[in-house]
Amino acid sequence: MKKIILLLALFIYTTSYSQNAKEISREWTSFTQSLSIESKTKKKFKIEASVKVISDEKQAWAGLWARVDNKNKETGFFDNMRDRPIKSNDWQTYTIEGTIDENSKTLNLGGLCLYNGKFFFDDFELFIENDKGVLEVVKVFNGDFEKKVENGTIPRWSQGVSKEKNVKVKEFDVTSTTDKVEGKLALLIEGKGIVYKEAYKINPMEDVSPQIGTLIAMLENLKDRVENQVKNMTQYELDYLHDEKANRIGSLIMHLAAAEKYYQVYTFENREFNEEEKKIWQVPLDLDQGGRDELRGHDAQYYLDIFNEVRAKTIAELKKRDDVWLTEVHEDSNMNNFFGWFHVMEHQSSHLGQILFLKKRIPPEPEVKLEQSIKN
Questions:
Q1: Which is nearest to 226 in space by CA: 200, 257, 195, 204?
Q2: Backbone φ, ψ for residue 155 (5° rounding)
């Protein structure tokens, strides 16, 4: 105990459990253990662990990760092995080396994995340089994972990237396994049902004309960006109103669907909304006060289902057309179809920026205070 006190002015492990974790959806997951650290001098640290990956997907990989959070709330050292992903199906030991200094506040360490497959972790070890310049072993609680996972909870570890943001990712199952390096158990995380999308490539599609295929790929990329930002938001977050002139994020998703619906009828059918369509789409298309008053009270999936239904119609109709159709001009507006769908994309990009702005300004949800019970 004295060695640790000499090594660091403050060294307190803080752990969190997964029972109260927020359930989210995404293509990766992680687990972490956090410790508070203070040092008057710059010190090296090293993390070692054994990992193996069993997957048929080339994009699946695992890694160790470490992040130092500084006292000024900035991130210090960070490494998640993205530049050297773990894909071997044999147990091997991997290492991360970093530094802490007088500005360091918290060291976070753990493992991560992406996409479908089985990801195995065992024998986490932490070493921190002491005053003599020697890397000294510091205990990682349940670093050998001998304490069995129960109900998706990893004893003494949090799921997520910090103890404050404890999450459960729906696409990953977390269990114990007897396929281990030492001892009796290791940690197994299995990813299932994740659809891989090329986030940084725009390619034409098969069986459609080149420009149409590229247009569809660009539209889908933008929709994915919107969906990734909002799919894990709570109803409170979607309904939050920044000020009397702002829009709720939920209403903005509906607005994107309404604008795309309008350009469907305009470009595919060469007309405006009819009266029945106005009853459904005019309020989200206009937003303003009507949108602020009416478009709320739903979860993220409600809005995304509507957006995805509209998009499916767009793709089906675009596939019926060719590149020549894109150049056709509407006499009433002097706009060709290509510009119309370019505008749909720039419109979505613009409101994505608005969503990002609003998302960062949502205050924590107020706690519900129960009334004091009536005494007899």
A1: 257
A2: -55, 130
CA 266 to the chain's CA centroid: 35
User: 249-273: buried (b, 16+ CB within 10 Å) or exposed (e) per residue?
Assistant: bbbbbbbbbbbbbbbbebbbeeeeb
Total residue length of the chain: 376
Question: Cα angle vertex 177, ends 176, 180, to 5°?
Answer: 120
CA gap 52, 179 in Å, rounded? 10
At residue 104, the 3 state secondary structure works out as strand
Could you state, in chain order, the average pLDDT of each consecutive group of 10 residues for the chain (376 residues)? Answer: 38 44 89 88 94 96 94 86 96 96 90 97 95 90 95 92 80 96 96 85 86 94 93 94 94 97 97 96 94 93 95 96 96 96 96 96 79 50
Single out the residue of 86, 96, 95 nearest to residue 52, CA to CA. Answer: 86
DSSP string, 19-75: GGPEEE--SEEEEEEEEEEE-SS-EEEEEEEEEEEE-S-TT-EEEEEEEEEETTS-E
pLDDT at 371: 55
Q: Give first-to-last CA distance, the chain, whole Å.
A: 53
* DSSP character string of 230-269: HTT--HHHHH--SSTTS--HHHHHHHHHHHHHHHHHHHHH
CA 260, distance to chain mean position in Å, is: 25
d(CA 165, CA 22): 8
Cβ-contact 307, 295 below 8 angstroms: no
Residue 249: the pLDDT is 97
The residues with which 53 forms a beta bridge, in sequence order, are 119
Give the distance, in angstroms, between the CA of residue 215 and the centroid of all CA atoms in the same chain. 26
Apex CA 252: angle with CA 250 and CA 257, to 5°?
100
Distance CA 193, CA 370 (A): 40
